[in-house]
Write the structure tokens for this entry.
Amino acid sequence: MAERSRTVVAAEVQDVLNYFGACPICGHPARARLITAQFADGRVCSQTVAECGGWCGWKGPVDATPMTGDAVVTAQGRNEIGAVTEAGDSGSCAPGFVVSGRS
């Protein structure tokens, strides 16, 4: 079985401005970031990760569905290294990540 290269050639972290989740441990408001990585083979994978804004330190993957509108609003606007439009073959990225349609 051929081993896939997992070399990251570009990465980006963007604040999600319209995420209004709560920490599942302590209930404090949580903030979310969209993490995107582009690999040497051209794949672009993204995952939304939230973290507690309170004292407990919780952090974990969350549903990227925003509370306002239909699209996630990030602080920097459109993703620079590839906009993720739909879920793809989740086996080609880490569990919980979404693959863009780039080839």
Remarks:
- The first strand starts at residue 8 and ends at 16.
- Confidence is low (pLDDT under 50) at residues 83-91.
- Residues 8-79 form one domain.
- Residues 26 and 56 are 7 Å apart (CA to CA).
